[in-house]
Amino acid sequence: MYFQLSMALEALVLSRDPQVLTTLNRVLDDANIDIQICSSADDAIQILNRHKFDTFVVDCDDVPDAPDVLQALRKGTSNKSCIAFALVNGRTSVRQAFEMGANFALDKPISVERTMRSVKAAQGLIMRERRRYYRHLVAATGAIVVDGITELPVSIITISEGGVSIECTRQLDRGGAARLRILLPGSKIQLDLKGEIIWSDTEGRAGIRFQVLPLETKKELESWLEQRALAVDRGAMFINATNTRAISG
Would you call 12 exposed, middle or buried from its count of C-beta atoms within 10 A (0-12, 13-18, 19+)? Predict the structure, then answer.
């Protein structure tokens, strides 16, 4: 089953500081980033294990064990590439925050102006990660060659920079190599893609993780996804791969 979601970015904030929460609510709302707040390290870890976020803000020095959550973030799966902000208040240095995995660090008390500048600087990275991990629903057809010899027609269900989910006429072998030829809607160049089948079912659905792509193919796919992301910003819908049976980027 596939779920269509809004384009709003999502942030998880681990903090107990009223001034921090007031400032972040204002700045993130202005940046069209939905905010979820938790006040303990245990709660943050449970939430991060269940849901993918675009950004994570962690109050390192004023929430017990908060630095452990930041380090665990980078060792996890669905949120390991999440853009992370560390808020520090004397015990943790900016350098230590970066060593623990933060992309940005802010000294407390944080101000609207400084926080806004940092969030604006982070948005390009956030959108880059979104294009990698969020699969766009696409109506396209193509062909897949498996075992180096057998060619089957396929329907493309979702696609991202990291991989594609498909439907074909038979179950594919998990772990096998696959070569895809796809012409995406609006594209003039047929994409020739190589990958690994990482899941499949008896109804012919499968997920393929891309391997190293030729430069021209990579540029064409990135350009197509960029245009699709712009269309989403104008009100289209997209697929959140973390809530579907799809490929990890």
Answer: buried
